[in-house]
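SAMPLE LOG
Freezer: B-3
Tube label: C17
Construct: single chain, 105 aa
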Amino acid sequence: MVSHRRRRTILTAIGLYLFAAAFVGYFAVNAFTGNHGLRAQQEIEQRLARMQAELDEVKAERTVWERRVSLLRSDKIDPDMLDERARALIGFADPRDVTLLLAPR
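STRUCTURE (predicted):
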């Protein structure tokens, strides 16, 4: 009877330790692979870096376009920009222009 009681206490202790280990293991795995875990944090940081690079490209393109638009404002029209846009829209060239015809590759 005494050995049965001792065996029962040992098995209960082992069971509690296994339950605690499984409990801690579950949260450890979830902390690494879960929706808000370490791996998700790395993916978010990578997406943030890609989006930051894309934002920088878009800002540079916007700066170029703002500069071009400012040259076409009615209060200070740049004659060269006006001539370039008019030729692009109409599709004509000045007879004094040098045109190069390139063969397609």
